[in-house]
Amino acid sequence: MRTATLALLAGFTLGVSAPALGADLDYGVLRGPDYEPEVQVIDWNGIYVGGHGGYSAASAGFKNAYRPLVANALRFTTAESDFNASSMLSSRGGNTEGASYGAFIGFNYQFDETVVGVEADYTRFDRTASTKDYNGLFRTNSAGYVETVRLDGMATARIEDYGTIRARGGYAIGNFLPYVTGGLAIGRVHTESAVTIQDFGYDAAAYKANQTSTSGKEVAVKNFGYVKDGFDPNNPEAGTPASNRVTASKTKTMGGFVLGAGLEFALTRNILLRGEYQYVMLNDFEKSSANRVSINTVRAGAALKF
Length: 306
Known about the structure:
The chain is an alpha+beta fold.
């Protein structure tokens, strides 16, 4: 009886103590180490320098490309006084597009997730926008001459390069920095305009008198604007007119503004990648052959932050 009692007590003790001992076992080796991976914190503060490349589309306005050239060439002529020849050509806009590239430098200041800064960039474009127009008229002028005026004009604007200085503002989201930007722009534009002018005519009354004369005597048919020996008094319409080409060119500095937006990505703490859209408007603020240039650019860039 005593033996059976001891056996029962021993079994009860083991049954109670076994779960407690099991609860004290450490299975950490089976679960693996308990830790969180390190999160890289990007500090956007500091100076950065980089380069960019992209694709630009530009348009140039030619508001007053031809009028001064024609007005000066035909001053004191009936072509201008009677027919206002300097207004015969229209100055339409011209477009161009192609690759662009350059460099930029800037400084960021960060507080919390907000990032503000200033950036300057330089862009080389070197593309030419152009416009053409042709017009002519055939009338009897105030002197009684049948006069013909023909104008053939062309104007170009080569956008050489431009630079901007801009403020930037963005919001940091981890490694990403979406931002907007805006500021001032300045660029160099080389403009050229040329007009080929033909202004010629003959005395209509004298020509008609010769055609209807029965006496056999002809009077001299006065004329102007033909090449040497290029006028036939018996067939004026077959004459060869002289041509006068007038030109003007100028390299000018144009100022304006720039707006844009982009997304920057911190590949590491010191290497930044970006994609950006930029709109630049330049104006020379004078009545000349190209008084407005607008440039739309989509580009990518990379920078080293210090």
